[in-house]
Amino acid sequence: MKYKRILLKLSGEALMGNRQYGIDNDRLVEYAMEIKQVVDSGCQVAIVIGGGNIFRGLAGAAKGMDRVQGDYMGMLATVINGMALQGALEDAGIYTRLQSAIEMDKIAEPFIKRKATRHLEKGRVVIFGAGTGNPYFTTDTAATLRAIEIGADVILKGTRVDGIYDSDPEKNADAVKYNSLSFDEVYKKNLKVMDMTAFTLSQENNLPIIVFDMNKAGNLLKIINGEEVGTLVSA
Ligand code: UDP
């Protein structure tokens, strides 16, 4: 196994499936099955999930809402997604814990690094909800921060495209995919991998990032086993 402890980042939008808003249950079950495969193979899995399928602080601010208020709403959205994913994983027979950066002890443990790593060692999937717990950040930054804190080998950013391209493959048919890139190359070519705060945190802590298509069955397991899937960004 190439990676023994991973941090999987899923966007909230990924959970929408073909819907315009909210959570698609079929998609949730598919993701749970993908995650089960890697857990069963002995890999330790932590997950950060976004909230964009429910609420984004920036979108609220654009409509005149207070940004900080909106960002907290976005963080709560990630807890809703985290609970949904937790339910689907448990239905698949996986032990899980949800840890939240905002305390809500009826539904989630508070984020405690030592507890999180202990859960991982015991084979439980740990879902980190409520982002970093701070407004003006994203769940990509939360994913990077948590990955570093728990000593993950890699951050796996599951998206609907199969890697990083020189231009947007959904708009440009000639777009060329990169198999691997250095942090410096991403920066110099101005490629979009994660927001700058998250990206810089990864680079400074030498945490590799793999961007891959989470909607293709088997991809997650292939990556854990060391197959070249998606685009690897490393030092
Ligand atoms: N958010 C925040 N602080 C964080 C993480 C998230 O304020 O540490 C808020 C922010 O408003 C963001 C929303 O939660 O827009 C949902 O997260 P994100 O946009 O990263 O979700 P994704 O794009 O992955 O679905």
List keywords for this structure.
single chain, 235 residues, alpha/beta, Carbamate kinase, 8 helices, 11 strands, globular
Task: Walk me through this protein's architecture.
There is one protein chain. β1, α1 and β2 form a beta-alpha-beta unit. Strands 4-3-5-2-1-6-10-11-9 form a 9-stranded mixed sheet, with helices on both faces. A two-stranded antiparallel ribbon has the order 7-8. 37% of the residues lie in helices and 20% in strands. It has helices spanning 25-40, 57-62, 67-91, 113-121, 139-149, 183-188, 196-204, 219-224; strands at 5-10, 44-49, 96-100, 109-110, 125-129, 154-159, 164-165, 177-178, 180-182, 209-213, 231-234. It is built from 8 helices and 11 strands. α5 (139-149) runs parallel beside α7. The protein has a single domain, classed as Carbamate kinase. The model has no long low-confidence stretch (mean pLDDT 97). The chain is an alpha/beta fold and 235 residues long. The structure holds uridine-5'-diphosphate. Uridine-5'-diphosphate (UDP) binds next to α2, α3 and α5.
- Identify every distinct bound molecule in the structure, by name, code or SMILES: uridine-5'-diphosphate
* Low-pLDDT residue spans: none
**CATH fold topology:** Carbamate kinase
* String of helices and strands: EHEHHEEHEHEEEEHHEHE
Give the number of DSSP strands. Answer: 11
The class by helix and strand makeup works out as: alpha/beta
- The level of helicity is 25-40%
The largest sheet, given as strand count, sense and whether it forms a barrel, is: 9 strands, mixed
Beta-strand content: 15-25%
Mean pLDDT: 97
- CATH class group: Alpha Beta
**Measured on Cα atoms, how large is the radius of gyration?**
17 Å
- Tell me which CATH architecture applies here: 3-Layer(aba) Sandwich
Report the total helices.
Answer: 8
Principal-axis shape: globular
Indicate how many domains the architecture comprises. 1
Terminal-residue CA separation: 21 Å
Name the strands of the widest sheet in spatial order.
4-3-5-2-1-6-10-11-9
- The CATH superfamily bears the name Acetylglutamate kinase-like
